[in-house]
Amino acid sequence: MNGRTFVDTHVLIYAHDVDSKSKHAVAKNILRKLWSDRTGVLSMQVLQEFYVNVTRKIRSPLPKDSARLPFRGGPLKTARS
Fold first, then answer.
1. Domain range spanning residue 62?
2. How distant is the alpha carbon of residue 32 from its chain centre?
């Protein structure tokens, strides 16, 4: 084990979907912990699925620029890193 946690698309979506109520809060807390510990890992496929879903398919879609913001903070560790 390398101490990393792969983050599924659904966790990212719930963390940004305010209409998902309790799942929203749980997902936000999970991501906050993973990002704080720098142990969360993403794949390019997850990022693509996240973007499509939060800008088109959730009840309250995010503006495209807002959907990109969470990942502009610097280099991301992806599953290949």
1. 5-71
2. 10
Residue 77 belongs to a domain:
no
Count of domains for the chain = 1
Read off the pTM. 0.78
As a whole number of angstroms, the distance between CA 42 and CA 75 comes to: 11
Task: Specify whether the CB–CB gap between 3 and 39 falls below 8 A.
Answer: yes
pLDDT tens for 17-67 read 989 989 999 999 999 999 899 999 999 999 999 999 999 999 989 888 888
Rounded to an integer, what distance in angstroms lies between the CA atom of residue 39 and that of residue 35? Answer: 6
d(CA 38, CA 3) in angstroms, rounded, equals: 10
pLDDT one-digit tens code per residue, 41-53: 999 999 999 999 9
Answer whether residue 81 is part of any domain: no
